């Protein structure tokens, strides 16, 4: 089949009349079919008059083997995105083979019959692109974005994965990917607070043989038991063309691309059709209360999970709104009951999760330290009773729908966004045309719909009620709860099976009519750097802008230099707390009124603080730009300083500090910085302060900080999107009334180079993984040496194709990921190499870090430099695609005082850099003998081994990074 359609993703903003027309059409359809209504005109192969103005064109067709293909042309950037959805997730697995869809996703990034080992993971980044994949309960997705000259190589790689992969899989590859996936499970589930929550809920909610009875990542025992025969069976059953949708979007020629798709994908065998999944909703006869004593949690958490409806069901849209009404904002019933009145938690959350065959509605509260979850549960019940009694206003609903609509449009901002959404609609809703029905269903939710789904799915309905509490505080669990069945892995030294990959595997090659050897690159796309305009107000406020009219949206940020740098040493966290408080109302608006004013515009405005600045971030529709800027001015120049909100935010910050003590990565990061920088240096303190310093902050401290440090003379405004320079400058005229003296930013102490490496260790009993940090202080981001260090690091740890990732993950299977980077700061920026590794290979991983960094200069050859240049130069073709990337470019320029042409300067440096130049940078700034090493892990099993690294007995630290 071959049909052409038009729809609104490029200029998707609907007028009120069009929204109403679509909503009316949608309501009529959803009454006839409450699950996945597809517009009638799609079935007829045409488009309706009311949507003919939409201008995002795509072409959909189907190959003879059943592969569904969608093409979309967008020549705004010289890049191409490919997204392949295979309709197989954990819901297609068999009991006893859980986690297999996700495991197979990992397997699919290895070699295939015509694509050599490592090409998928290494070649695409080295061509200047990016690639990844993902698995969820209902599907697996593979996606890439490359400069358009590498488009043919994507066709080669992706078609070979779909049709010619299986014969190359051997036992060594199978075992390595098992270890990588198990490392991912440890990192995402076993070694983090509340990580087992979804496992407990799924086992309790869904019957044993229901497809949602297990998590996507599955059980370790099932994974370890997987065989080559299992892999082959899974591949033949589900990786067939008719069970997939391929979307290609970007700078392509439609006619030519159709021919290429037919060549590369057309001769893949059709395979047997995969039956469609039908809805399998579940019900609960009574509440099920379960608890888990969590090894890493520092705060008690309760979650209520109600059975709900599947994806695209008409009730799912109303449940989405219900979740927001209950939990988001000052008027939310859960917030008012749990946070404001009972003061049992710093925040609440609720969400609706509509999957392909069933859904859930969840309410989650992570309580304050020592909060009894019985009390939290009662507060939740009171909130639901209040919601039913008081209902909600039309203004609240309008605000939510405005935000949902804006978010919907932002979901189509990039080429990859478009490719993924078109594929998702095609594979799960029956056609890309469902985009119109989707936005119509979003905008047509009524008050009656929301109250109806509340009564149908939530009111007096049974739920799974889970209590996850610190392991030594069982008294906090909900009364009547029973112990959940959670199997904690025991990681033993030497327990993992060794594997040897065969790089010379012999296999029978599938005969093909088409030459499937590697295609050449086409012409290199020309880099087009967007025009930047600048201006300055009389009060000193600097303004930077880029006009980009591809979508009718605007992103902006206003940054005031200073941040935690200007905090009193005994009251660190003042700036961050002040920034949070600025979100809570203005002199003329209560917190609730401000929230409503922003929401009714469909906009976002948020003030935040970090170590070096205070930033107001904003997003808005272009038509609402002036109104949004007016609200930003009000927030900045007329803060409310509400005492009650101050106390709430301060308590929440103290709770977060306690919570972080169970997060191994946060512990490692804070302790590493404390040991890397001298006492008194801003980097040696946690962003947001410590329990002692935050406890000391008073509201008057906030006011004093604001009065002394918020000045236009150290502020920059950055604006990108569908708004002209003249319009921006006109909109900010009101900022001329802003005045103040420039604050003096304190000079930071110089970091002296170490004479020899130092090894530190922090005990986290029972840890399934060890967090490793290695690094040193280098140069400030404004220094001429900073960018050369970034370039030099590229082949060490910048992405999975670099040495750290290739060695620790691909060759050894020790980790899920390993990277190195330099964080840009105004002081001596930290160079950091880090990973989370399986506990029983902590020493071996440290030795790899040591070896790779110490020998990096000597092993960095001419081919490394060539790859680096290729990655950076060609990768720049993707640098200016989204508003966020453009905004980041402007922020970097203003923050570090870079020249107007700094992008061109960096491009020129990369092109001209020689091998000796890079070697000098490595020797000067990445000397391993000047680095510190830090491990957060299980001392009982690993501490004795640490001295074998060769850097003496490790120095023991507490979780705050202090010497023990």
Walk me through this protein's architecture.
- With 964 residues, the protein is an alpha+beta fold.
- The protein has 34 helices and 25 strands.
- The longest helix has 20 residues.
- It is globular.
- A hairpin with a 4-residue loop joins strand 10 and strand 11.
- Helix content is 39%, strand content 18%.
- Among the domains are: 176 residues, Cytochrome Bc1 Complex, Chain A, domain 1; 205 residues, Metalloenzyme, LuxS/M16 peptidase-like (Cytochrome Bc1 Complex, Chain A, domain 1); 193 residues, 2-Layer Sandwich (Cytochrome Bc1 Complex, Chain A, domain 1), CATH 3.30.830.
- Helix 12 packs across helix 13 and helix 27 packs antiparallel against helix 28.
- It starts with a strand and ends in a 7-residue tail after the last strand.
- It has a 7-stranded mixed beta sheet with strand order 1-2-3-7-4-6-5, sandwiched between helices.
- This is Insulinase family protein.
- It comes from Thalassomonas viridans.
- Pfam families: Peptidase_M16, Peptidase_M16_C.
- Belongs to the peptidase M16 family.
- One of its GO terms (molecular function) is metal ion binding.
End-to-end CA span: 71 Å
Widest sheet, order of strands: 1-2-3-7-4-6-5
Tally of helical segments:
34
Looking at the overall shape, the CATH architecture of the domain at 533-737 is 2-Layer Sandwich
Proportion of strand residues: 15-25%
Taking the sheet with the most strands, its summary is: 7 strands, mixed
The total strand number stands at 25
Q: Which CATH class of the domain at 533-737 applies here?
A: Alpha Beta
Question: Looking at this structure, what is the CATH superfamily of the domain at 533-737?
Answer: Metalloenzyme, LuxS/M16 peptidase-like
**Helix share bin:** 25-40%
| CATH topology title of the domain at 533-737 | Cytochrome Bc1 Complex, Chain A, domain 1
- Unreliable runs: 1-54
Rg from Cα: 28 Å
Q: By helix and strand content, what is the structural category?
A: alpha+beta
Provide mean pLDDT, rounded: 90
Outline type: globular
């Amino acid at each position: 089949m071959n049909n052409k359609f038009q729809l609104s993703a490029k200029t998707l903003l609907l007028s009120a009349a069009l929204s109403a027309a679509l909503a009316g059409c949608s309501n009529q359809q959803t009454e006839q079919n409450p699950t996945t209504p597809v517009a009638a005109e799609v079935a007829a192969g045409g488009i309706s008059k009311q949507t003919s103005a939409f201008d995002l064109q795509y072409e959909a067709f189907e190959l003879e083997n059943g592969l569904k293909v969608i093409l979309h042309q967008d020549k705004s950037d010289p890049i191409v995105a490919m997204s392949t959805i295979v309709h197989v997730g954990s819901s297609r697995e068999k009991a006893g083979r859980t986690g297999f869809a996700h495991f197979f996703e990992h397997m699919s990034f290895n070699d295939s019959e015509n694509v050599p080992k490592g090409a998928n993971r290494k070649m695409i980044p080295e061509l200047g692109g990016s690639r990844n994949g993902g698995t969820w309960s209902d599907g697996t997705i593979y996606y890439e974005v490359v400069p358009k000259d590498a488009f043919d190589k994507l066709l080669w790689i992706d078609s070979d994965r779909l049709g010619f992969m299986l014969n190359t899989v051997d036992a060594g590859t199978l075992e390595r990917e098992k270890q990588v996936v198990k490392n991912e499970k440890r990192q995402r589930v076993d070694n983090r607070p509340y990580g087992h929550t979804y496992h407990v809920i799924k086992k309790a909610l869904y019957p044993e043989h229901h497809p949602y009875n297990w998590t996507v990542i599955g059980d370790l025992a099932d994974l370890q038991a997987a065989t080559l025969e299992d892999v082959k069976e899974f591949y033949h059953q589900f990786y067939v063309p008719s069970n997939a949708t391929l979307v290609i979007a970007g700078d392509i020629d439609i006619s030519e691309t159709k021919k290429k798709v037919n060549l590369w994908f057309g001769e893949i065998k059709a395979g047997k059709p995969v039956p469609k999944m039908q809805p399998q909703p579940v019900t609960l006869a009574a509440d099920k209360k379960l608890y888990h004593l969590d090894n890493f949690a520092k705060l008690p958490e309760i979650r209520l999970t109600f059975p709900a409806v599947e994806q695209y069901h008409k009730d799912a849209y109303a449940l989405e709104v219900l979740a927001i009404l209950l939990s988001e904002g000052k008027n939310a019933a859960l917030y008012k009951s749990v946070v404001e009145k009972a003061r049992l938690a710093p925040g609440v959350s609720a969400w609706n999760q509509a999957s392909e065959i069933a859904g859930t509605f969840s309410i989650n509260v992570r309580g304050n330290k020592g909060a009894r979850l019985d009390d939290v549960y009662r507060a939740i019940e009171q909130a639901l009773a209040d919601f039913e009694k008081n209902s909600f206003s039309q203004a609240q609903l309008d605000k939510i729908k405005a935000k949902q609509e804006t978010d919907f449009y932002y979901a189509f901002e990039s080429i990859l966004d478009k490719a993924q959404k078109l594929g998702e609609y095609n594979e799960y809703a029956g056609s890309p045309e469902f985009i119109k029905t989707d936005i119509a269903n979003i905008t047509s939710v009524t008050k009656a719909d929301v109250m109806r789904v509340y009564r149908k799915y939530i009111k007096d309905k049974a739920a799974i009620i889970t209590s996850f509490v610190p392991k030594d505080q069982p008294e906090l669990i909900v009364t009547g709860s029973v112990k959940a069945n959670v199997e904690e892995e025991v990681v033993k030294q030497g327990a993992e099976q060794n594997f040897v990959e065969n790089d010379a595997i012999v296999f029978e090659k599938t005969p093909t009519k088409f030459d499937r050897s590697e295609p050449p690159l086409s012409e290199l796309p020309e880099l087009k750097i967007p025009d930047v305009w600048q201006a300055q107000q009389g009060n000193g406020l600097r303004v930077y802008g880029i006009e980009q009219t591809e979508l009718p949206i605007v992103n902006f940020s206003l940054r005031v230099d200073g941040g935690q740098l200007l905090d009193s040493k005994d009251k660190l966290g003042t700036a961050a707390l002040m920034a949070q408080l600025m979100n809570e109302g203005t002199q003329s608006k209560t917190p609730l009124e401000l929230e409503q004013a922003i929401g009714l515009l469909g906009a976002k405005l948020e003030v935040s603080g970090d170590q070096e600045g205070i930033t107001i971030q904003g997003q808005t529709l272009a038509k609402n730009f002036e109104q949004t800027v007016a609200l930003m001015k009000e927030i900045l120049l007329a803060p409310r300083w509400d005492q009650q909100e101050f106390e709430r935010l301060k308590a929440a910050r103290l709770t977060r500090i306690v919570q972080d003590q169970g997060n191994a990565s946060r512990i490692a990061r804070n302790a590493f910085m404390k040991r890397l920088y001298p006492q008194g240096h801003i980097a040696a303190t946690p962003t947001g302060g410590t329990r002692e310093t935050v406890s000391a902050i008073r509201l008057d401290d906030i006011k004093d900080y604001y009065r002394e440090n918020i000045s236009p003379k150290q502020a920059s405004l950055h604006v990108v999107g569908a708004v002209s320079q003249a319009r921006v400058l006109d909109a900010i005229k009101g900022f001329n009334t802003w005045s103040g003296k420039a604050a003096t930013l304190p000079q930071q102490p110089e970091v002296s180079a170490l004479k020899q490496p130092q090894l530190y260790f922090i005990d986290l009993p029972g840890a399934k993984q060890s967090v490793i940090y290695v690094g040193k202080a280098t140069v400030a981001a404004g220094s001429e040496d900073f960018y050369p260090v970034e370039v030099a690091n590229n082949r060490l740890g910048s992405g999975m194709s670099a040495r750290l990732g290739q060695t620790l993950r691909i060759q050894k299977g020790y980790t899920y990921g390993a990277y190195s980077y330099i964080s840009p700061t105004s002081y001596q920026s930290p160079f950091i190499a880090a990973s989370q590794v399986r506990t029983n290979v902590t020493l071996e991983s440290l030795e790899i870090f040591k070896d790779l960094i110490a020998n990096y200069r000597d092993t960095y050859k001419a081919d490394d430099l060539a790859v680096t240049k290729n990655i950076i130069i060609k990768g720049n073709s993707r640098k200016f695609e989204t508003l966020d990337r453009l905004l980041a470019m402007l922020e970097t320029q203003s923050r570090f005082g870079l020249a107007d042409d700094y992008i061109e300067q960096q491009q020129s440096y990369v092109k001209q850099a020689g091998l000796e130049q890079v070697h000098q940078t490595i020797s000067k700034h990445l000397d391993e003998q000047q680095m510190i090493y830090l491990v957060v892990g299980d001392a009982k099993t690993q501490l004795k081994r640490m001295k074998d690294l060769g850097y003496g007995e490790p120095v023991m630290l507490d979780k705050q990074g202090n010497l023990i």
